[in-house]
User: Fold these one by one.
Assistant:
Number 1:
Amino acid sequence: GAVVSQHPSWVICKSGTSVKIECRSLDFQATTMFWYRQFPKQSLMLMATSNEGSKATYEQGVEKDKFLINHASLTLSTLTVTSAHPEDSSFYICSASANGYTFGSGTRLTVV
Amino acid sequence: QKEVEQNSGPLSVPEGAIASLNCTYSDRGSQSFFWYRQYSGKSPELIMFIYSNGDKEDGRFTAQLNKASQYVSLLIRDSQPSDSATYLCAVKVTDKLIFGTGTRLQVFP
């Protein structure tokens, strides 16, 4: 149980375009999901907490207008990277809480 | 001071040995502690979590908490080459997890 599905697993996009990443809880309802970013050889940095039916809570230093989070249902949260730039290239991972925190498989974003 | 600190390693141990990984945390009020394993290019996998009321053993893994010194340890018995990975310690702060930088473990045959 407690499976979190994340899609896509990797994406390459052109600078200036937007990319949407989906995170789904498959066998449980997640009122709260978390979005992390991980740069090479670094740890996971929490970007924001996504709450179903309300606005996301962003960590200090994370631009809420650039990283749009929508949590419209109890099983789906989306992260949209708007006007992506090469410095946004990273590994994005979502997580949800169910008997421990379970992570999605991650999305490797490359902006060219 | 960072909230969660780990030695980046690498920690090298021979196959069959005990690997000991440590993590210190700054919030004395922390109640829940998590250990994850992360292979290169993959997302973290939960190994185990413990609460402030005691240690926990699961197969070859044992998590121990020292509240007085504010550190958490993970012991891996009978280490295998397949255990070679980065081990992330995380502490629950309100409802979110704060991660350490991870310790890279290398188990050599």
Note: The first strand of chain A starts at residue 4 and ends at 7.
Number 2:
Amino acid sequence: EAQVTQNPRYLITVTGKKLTVTCSQNMNHEYMSWYRQDPGLGLRQIYYSMNVEVTDKGDVPEGYKVSRKEKRNFPLILESPSPNQTSLYFCASSLPGAGQFFGPGTRLTVL
Amino acid sequence: AQKITQTQPGMFVQEKEAVTLDCTYDTSDPSYGLFWYKQPSSGEMIFLIYQGSYDQQNATEGRYSLNFQKARKSANLVISASQLGDSAMYFCAMREGSRTGGFKTIFGAGTRLFVKA
């Protein structure tokens, strides 16, 4: 089954404790992206990747890191999470220019 | 700067009727893509339809069509014969090239559609 998986689905953590949200796709897509969704703001792009070892900033990259060492994986790293990073996070993948397939989302709470 | 505007926070439609969800965009890039996504109450994001800036015809996918008016910079989603399962949040999105050769994507704030029986 074609899918994008994210782990964990839910996470409660404390300020400053490094965390990683994993994202994996099995569709051989070049393009992968991370978004955060906050009420009334729609989805905002954090980082995206056009292919292995090619990443670029979206509109809200501050406080986040990503890496793309393999085509299928695109982890999101929060080195020192803060409460303003409490949000719903989505990973997505697609062929270049096509509609994106989204993961199920990760709900993160930073206390 | 690129921008997506969805002016309707909420919409009501009677079951079996058609409904139009508005989306306007702003970009200086001649090459861009426009997308609509659906987010049901369960939370997942579902791709519905795509329109490229150079496409001459409006995109259609089943009961979904995209009314693309390039000069007005609008990309409205039309849902024909609404069903109860269409009740959801709908997001308009635009993808355009970045200076580094990649594709940035921005989303509108969304329109919540309620389908009445």
Note: Chain B has a mean pLDDT of 93.
